Amino acid sequence: MTTTLSKPPSPAKRRLPAPVRRFLGNKLAVIGIVVLVIFAGAALLARQVAPFDPAQIFFADLRAAPSAAHLFGADELGRDIFSRVVYGARVSLSAGLISVTLALVFGGSIGLIAGYIGGWLDDLLMRFVDALLSLPFLVLAIALAAILGPSLQNTMIAIAIVTAPAFARITRGEVLSQRERDYVQAAQALGAGDGRLIVRHLLPNISGALIVQTSLAIANAILAEASLSFLGLGIQPPTPSWGSMLNAARGYLTDAPWMALFPGLAIFLAVLAFNLIGDGLREALDPRGHKS
């Protein structure tokens, strides 16, 4: 009976940190990175990538099918769908990144304070977080967006508020787990202050869980932004958004299905990319069950 030996990693790959090697070894995660780079490149270079102004109207091309002139077809006003999808990537990616960054800072701070200080402050903050978590994610986002008013900035604020409790809960759990470790007690015995203990010891050791949660939260934020824009509570026309494009396509699903197909496919691929990256990060940053 013969055994097959796996090919040893190249010298260049061996020089990479073990989590990076594990991540690059995950083919689905690498595919997610490639898709994300394509979307990010299109968003950053939208003026160079898009063949038309996303608000430019061509009356001769109303609901035109995909062709060489309009790669993804044209919408009910004759606007180029490919250009609008490209510019819509700016809205979706910026909404996801900015709102989740705000949620990470706000929710992470709450969880860090609650887990590190403990006592009555922990109980008070966690009951507030539990109250927010008891409400459905999208319902709360819709309510906040309706109260704040329809705009991209208010959409990002609403998404940040409903996303922050998850970060608070995860951060608190990680801090409680790390707070009793020997290295924390040793640092305290050596006279490390609270600030040094948090910055130099706790945050680096809980960052893995937060990084994974961030990538998954961005996927949810993109879906939330698209949902709010679909309902008219997000960014307002004529600025293109994948969600508002789907809303406009509702009445033309039979005559012009490409109006819904391409923005819907963009949402699907962007969300899938972040989920694949999140799964890859979870496996790469979790040393259990992996060999360096």
CATH architecture: Orthogonal Bundle
Mean pLDDT: 87
Structural class: mainly alpha
Helix and strand sequence: HHHHHHHHHHHH
> How many domains?
1
Q: Largest beta sheet, briefly?
A: none
Q: How large is the radius of gyration?
A: 23 Å
Percent in strands: under 5%
CATH superfamily: MetI-like
What overall geometry do the principal axes of the alpha carbons give? elongated
Termini separation comes to 28 Å
Strand segment tally:
0
Number of helices: 12
CATH class reads Mainly Alpha
Protein architecture, described:
This protein has 292 residues and is mainly α. It has one domain (18-285): MetI-like (MetI-like fold, Orthogonal Bundle), CATH 1.10.3720.10. It is built from twelve helices and no strands. The chain has helices spanning 11-14, 18-24, 27-44, 46-49, 81-117, 119-133, 137-148, 152-179, 182-189, 194-230, 242-249, 258-285. The two termini are 28 Å apart.
Topology (SSEs and partners):
Blueprint: H1 11-14, H2 18-24, H3 27-44, H4 46-49, H5 81-117, H6 119-133, H7 137-148, H8 152-179, H9 182-189, H10 194-230, H11 242-249, H12 258-285
Helix pairs in contact: 2-12, 3-5, 3-12, 5-6, 5-8, 5-10, 5-12, 6-8, 7-8, 8-10, 10-11, 10-12, 11-12
List keywords for this structure.
292 residues, mainly alpha, MetI-like fold, 12 helices, 71% helix
Write a short abstract of this structure.
By secondary structure, the chain is an all-alpha fold. 71% of the residues lie in helices and 0% in strands.
